[in-house]
Amino acid sequence: MGFRDDLDEVVHRTKTFHRSSRMGTALIEVCSIGDCERRIPAQDLTRWSFPSGMKDYLDALYRRQEAVWRLRRTLHDDRIPSVAPWYGIAEHSAYVGGEVSFTPNTSYHHPFLKDWDDLPKLRLDADNPWRRMLDDGFAFLSDLAAGECAVSMRGSYSPLEVANAIRGNDLFTDFYEFPGEVLGLMEFSCRAVAWNIECQKRAVGPYEGGVLSGFKSWIPGDSFGQISEDTTVLTGPVLYGEFGLPYTKRAVAGQERLFVHTHGVGEASLESILRMGNVYMLEISSDPNSDRGIEVFKRLDPDPGIVGVLALTLREIEENLGFLKTRKTVIWYDAADLEEAARAVALVRRELPAG
Q1: Structural domain contains residue 1
Q2: What span, in angstroms and rounded, lies between the C-alpha atoms of 244 and 274?
Q3: Which of 56, 201, 220, 281 has the greatest number of CB atoms lying within 10 Å of its CB?
Q4: Residues 32-48, mean pLDDT to the nearest whole number
Q5: What average pLDDT does the segment 303-326 reach?
Q6: 242 near 186, Cβ under 8 Å?
Q7: Which DSSP symbol is given to 347?
Q8: What's the rounded Cα separation, in Å, for the pair 295 and 275?
Q9: Enclosing domain of residue 251
């Protein structure tokens, strides 16, 4: 593959890490390098017309990734080069209908279920333009990237997040005022998420005996990632237990392993999330004015079989080595420049060798 000369080593180290039951091991994926990213600015989504300009946009997206990887070619971290059809965040739910607007660096899906009488009209349509932009985008990038880099999943909202996107923030009073209607919406959202997962896995296929998640991290087996459970931060475990967890469990029941993403401010719901049963990798994002994800993960202290995915600074790695040596961890690292990235990789290789 063209993006990395040492890809075989990266894949071998990654598989060794996941096969091993030994604690105190880690992979370090350098997600961004500020100096490199600034030299090659990201695409401005407002400059493109979708869906008509999809292929031109994805070609530009791919060429930028190719250029960034060329700049970081001397860095020997554990990131597997991959691309995916990224149009912001709207594609996680816009495939069920509704309008989308763009900003330079993301997209927003506007709530569209204004009247509960319209609930029976919700449909899953293979010709929805956002469904087509995802499925056709995977096919286009697979042809473009063949022999150069992998194509990753895009990931998925959970059913509760899809319901939130469809209904908007009225959903949080609907739990009390229209619980029966919400349960009907959850049935639809559950089907939507299961369909989205099926479409993505069919379009992308396996990679090296596993899959590349929407967050680019590799998961062994017939698995999926990421499932985003962000709406739990606004519900808590009681409402999530009734309106969220049962539907996520059904939507992902066929997946061997799951990569789940959530946020530290939703700490109260973390134990409930783990009741899905097939959670294998858990990423807890840090939020402003709250504890860092590493601190939340330490308090949760899940079963050692669950791999923690944690965005850490160099100082946080150093200060938490004692804890990290009791776990298996995928460390996400954002570096200012290549020199800093290399120092972080060297520290992890020395203290938390993957194999």
Answers
A1: no
A2: 13
A3: 281
A4: 91
A5: 96
A6: no
A7: H
A8: 21
A9: 7-351
User: DSSP secondary-structure letter at 207?
Assistant: B
We report the CATH number of the domain holding residue 143 as: 3.20.20.210
Residue in the structure block whose two tokens are 């972080």: 344
| HSE-up of residue 143 (Cα within 13 Å, Cβ side) | 8
- The answer as to whether 2 is a domain residue is no
| Cβ-contact 83, 216 below 8 angstroms | no
Helix ranges (DSSP H) in 252-313: 270-273, 293-300
Rounded Cα distance between 311 and 297, Å, is 11
Place of tokens 């049935």: 187
Two tokens at 208?
């090296």
The predicted model gives 26-55 an average pLDDT of 93
Domain annotation covers residue 336: yes
- Whole-number pLDDT of residue 2: 84
Q: How many domains does the chain have?
A: 1
Residue-wise pLDDT for 258-295, tens only, equals 999 999 999 999 999 999 989 999 999 998 989 999 99
